[in-house]
Design brief:
about 130 residues; Serine Threonine Protein Phosphatase 5, Tetratricopeptide repeat; globular
Length: about 130
Amino acid sequence: MLAKCRNRLTNWDLAARYGNTKILEKLWGWGREVQVNLKDDLLLAKDYDGLTAWNIAARDDNTEILEKLWGWGREVQVNLKDDLLLAKGRNGLSAWDIAARNGNTDILEKLCGWGTEVQVNLKDDLLLAKD
């Protein structure tokens, strides 16, 4: 499940990249069964580009996967604000940045709703944020 293939991606990475929610669900269930560290080994694991499944779902405009990952983040009690909403990949972009760059208003609205829920300061954390 966590083994990397020739292109240095795990099955989790590949399922996120191809938008396969069913495979992500299956891997999450198996991870629970074999007591994998769901937070670090799956949810927050980064691929060779420094992207998590969260960043990949935002990049690929996949709201369904973002919703799944948000729920799982709650389940394993990650810091939803810092580890998901404001987390940046190696490219320095957060899910907000990616959605804005892609012009995906549906994902921006979803992120904004979650941001309000976890008290993201839209002005300081997003609009005036510095790298």
